[in-house]
Design goal:
Blueprint: E1 4-10, H1 17-27, H2 29-32, H3 38-46, H4 52-63, H5 71-84, E2 88-95, H6 107-125, E3 133-141, H7 146-158, E4 163-169, H8 179-191, E5 199-200, E6 217-220, H9 223-227, H10 232-238, E7 241-244, H11 248-251, H12 260-271, E8 274-277, H13 282-285, H14 289-298, H15 304-316, H16 327-344
Parallel strand pairs: 1-2, 2-3, 3-4, 5-6, 6-7, 7-8
């Protein structure tokens, strides 16, 4: 049995359609009543969108109900599914804490409330029944003011046991006018030993080389091998890993066919750039991480050697995996020790 590490999963997009629908029926009938039945809701929730911007609007629907009180409900079901159905040993959940605070509060009050959200997510993620190593990545956001994004970085430093890194999310076209802000915030994070990733080079509108030196991993990054392969040498030299989320690119209209990803993987492998396969928004896509691997394999995008390389890279680049080895090596060592004891009669 393979065990997986998931490095790029959004809390807002991780809720599977059936769980979200049941929550709406029980707690938000005003939202459930927009749809005639579950089938209509599932189609609305999971169908591909024309652009990244249209796709991101779905996050606002989920964020509006992921309140302090509701987060444990969603996270328990998320962790349970990750353990039982996906064989996850490690999971990094990313989200923008500001968007889980009450909208009725002032900006200052919402910033002050962000710490409690982090604590709620941290407690809810620790499920002894489903032992998945789980940490948070806090997302700055292209739609939020500098003060909120700065507070997000500062909170990441204050909660090192629960938060393993920061990210920047939101529509990537919106980064352009605020690059100096994000460069400053990422520099601050690195100076405080906060690990960094960022949604970058996902679409052709999101290509900002100014941010690359500050990232330890690159959220998506597919436009580097597709449109800017000259950057691969620098990416490899920095030891950066690309977080590739295959289904996303068809949900957002970024790519047309899965065969286009073959060039992404081939060029990365040839350049010595590590790739971690991820789901991004497993609920919105109605897909699980093992399927992403299987689909890439059966569609001849990668082979078994590439699959194993990506599995290993995910654990190697995990910001908070607590062991020197990935699970398969640990299990193999345990089995060899057991065989030794059996042979020796111990």
């Amino acid at each position: 049995m393979s065990l997986y590490a998931e490095l790029h999963r959004h809390l807002g997009g991780s809720v599977v359609p059936r769980v979200l629908w049941r929550y709406f029926q029980r707690n938000r009938p005003d939202l459930a009543d927009r749809f005639s039945d579950y089938a209509e809701f599932e189609q609305f929730y999971t169908q591909p969108k024309s652009t990244l911007e249209e796709y991101l609007e779905l996050h606002t629907l989920v964020e509006s109900v992921q309140t302090k009180e509701a987060l444990p409900y969603f996270i328990y079901r998320l962790i349970r599914g990750a353990y039982i159905f996906e064989n996850l040993a490690y999971l990094e959940l990313r989200y923008t804490p500001y968007y889980r605070t009450p909208e009725r509060l002032t900006q200052t009050e919402r910033i002050d409330a962000m710490a409690e959200i982090i604590e709620v997510v941290g407690r809810a993620s620790q499920q002894s029944e489903y032992p998945v190593v789980t940490r948070q990545i806090l997302c700055m956001h292209s739609r939020l003011p500098y003060e909120v994004n700065r507070a997000t970085v500062e909170l990441a430093a204050q909660y090192p046991d629960q938060v393993c890194g920061i990210d920047v999310a939101g529509g990537d076209a919106a980064y352009q006018e605020r690059l100096d802000e994000f460069v400053q915030l990422y520099a601050q994070a690195r100076s405080q030993n906060i690990k960094t990733t960022g949604h970058l080079y996902e679409t052709e509108n999101g290509c900002y080389p100014e941010l690359l030196p500050y990232l330890m991993r690159i959220g998506h990054g597919i436009q580097i091998p597709l449109k800017h392969p000259e950057l691969l040498k620098q990416v490899a030299a920095r030891g950066q890993c690309l977080e590739i989320c295959p289904t996303t690119y068809f949900q957002t209209g970024t790519l047309d066919e899965i065969s286009q990803l073959k060039q992404v993987f081939n060029r990365c492998f040839d350049a010595g750039v590590d790739v971690a396969i991820c789901t991004d928004n497993a609920g919105l896509h109605n897909v699980r991480l093992p399927f992403e691997y299987e689909n890439l394999l059966t569609q001849d995008v990668i082979g078994f050697d590439g699959l194993r390389a990506c599995q290993a890279a995910a654990f190697r680049h995990a910001f908070a995996w607590p062991h020197a080895e990935q699970p398969v090596s640990m299990i193999s060592s345990l089995l060899k020790e057991r065989e030794r004891l059996v042979v020796s009669g111990g």
